[in-house]
Each structure stands twice: as structure tokens, then as C-alpha cells.
Amino acid sequence: MAEDTVDKRKRRFLVAATTVVGGGGLIAFAIPFIQSMEPSDAVSAAGAPIDVDISKLEPGAMITVPWRGRPVWVLHRTPEQLKVLQKSSLVERLRDPESKELQQYGTEVVNWYRSLRPEYFVVVGICTHLGCVPTYRPDIAPADLGPEWPGGFYCPCHGSLYDLSGRVFKSMPAPLNLPVLPYYFKNDTLLRVGELKDKSEQNWLPQTW
């Protein structure tokens, strides 16, 4: 075999090997760089605000996002669900229908729908009894909750019931409404959860936490 042919083959092998090693090194470098762009556990635990995209949240649907190690619910309420919240037959069954207890960050969410916009409900999904996570039960009058159930949230641990504004029913183990945390709309499809527009209320705490 000619010497120049052997040299060319060696050269091609060395180029290929260098390319593979270089590519592997690039990937190894890129992975920690990409991971460094994600919020650290320490930042999340400290309660850093988060952005929530609601552009694909259909009416009647709810999503859960983590904040301060707790589940935050974002519910897109339907017009039918909003009508139920105003019925006197429901209101008279609630412990604190006017949100007089300080379970919300400010007066702008002290209303019958407990939110900035009636259709979007943002709340910490932690039962105010012993900290269990309730389930979203939008179904009307299911067999297990009875014919008077209007839709809302049910805590499977001890049976506490909340309406679709997170207001607790009377005679329940839970003493308070679900906590409405600080948030604001950055635009029509994006929520900032965990602070207000003026960057205040980042250290907000409800009565039960």
C-alpha cells in the first residue's frame, strides 16, 4: 500500500475522532449551561415569583403549578360556574362568604369571585384544616357528595368542602377559606404568581400555612 494512502487514512481517522470528542465535549458543556437557566431549588423554595401561561387553559379546566413548595391552582371558570357562586342558596351555606377573614392578599380580591378577573381563580390548593390537598370536583350533585353539591373542591382527608371561589362551607373541619396569594396579569395570557405588579407582597403569608 502506498505510504501517502496510509497517511490520508490516518488523517481522516484523526479528524473524525477529534470531531466526535469535540462534539461530546460541547454537549457536556451545554447540559450544565441549560440546567443553569432553570430556577434553582433554593430560589423556588424561597418563594420566587413564577409566570404561568394561561393561553391554552380552556373554560372549566384547572392547572396546578408549584410555588413555595405548595400547589397553586389556576382555574378558568365557566359562565355557568360563575352564576352558581352568586346564588343565595349557596351563599347561606358558607362560613365566610364575604371573605372577611384575611385569607387573601388584598382588598382587590375581596369579592364574591375572590379574584382579579371573575373567570380566572388563582389560589393555594391547601386545605386550611391540616394541610391536605383537596380535589377539584366541578361535577354537580354527584352520588358521593350529595344532591346539593354545586361544584367546588373536596378534601378527601377529613371531608372539608369549598365552593369554586375557595370559600369553605359551614360546619366543616376547615376553619378558613383557601388562601388567595399575590398575583397579577402581565398580559391577557400570562400570570405572574407570587408578587404584585409593584413587586410587593413577596413575603405574604395567610393565617394558615
- CATH topology name of the largest domain, in short, is Rieske Iron-sulfur Protein
What is the H/E order? HHEEEHHEEEEEE
Strand content range: 15-25%
Rounded to an integer in angstroms, the radius of gyration calculated over CA atoms is: 26 Å
Sheet with the most strands, sense and barrel status: 3 strands, antiparallel
CATH superfamily of the largest domain: Rieske [2Fe-2S] iron-sulphur domain
Tell me the strand order in the biggest sheet.
Answer: 1-9-8
Secondary structure: elements and pairs:
Blueprint: H1 3-36, H2 41-45, E1 50-53, E2 62-67, E3 70-76, H3 79-85, H4 88-91, E4 120-124, E5 135-137, E6 152-154, E7 161-162, E8 183-187, E9 190-193
Antiparallel strand pairs: 1-9, 2-3, 3-4, 5-6, 6-7, 8-9
Offer a few descriptive terms.
three-stranded antiparallel beta sheet, globular, 209 residues, 4 helices, Rieske Iron-sulfur Protein, single chain, alpha+beta
Structural commentary:
By secondary structure, this protein is an alpha+beta fold. The protein has two domains: 3-38; 42-193, Rieske [2Fe-2S] iron-sulphur domain (Rieske Iron-sulfur Protein, 3-layer Sandwich). It has four helices and nine strands; from the N terminus they run ααβββααββββββ. The strands form three sheets. A three-stranded antiparallel sheet has the order 1-9-8, with no helix packed on it. A hairpin with a 6-residue loop joins strand 6 and strand 7 (161-162). The protein is globular. The termini are far apart. The relative contact order is 0.15.
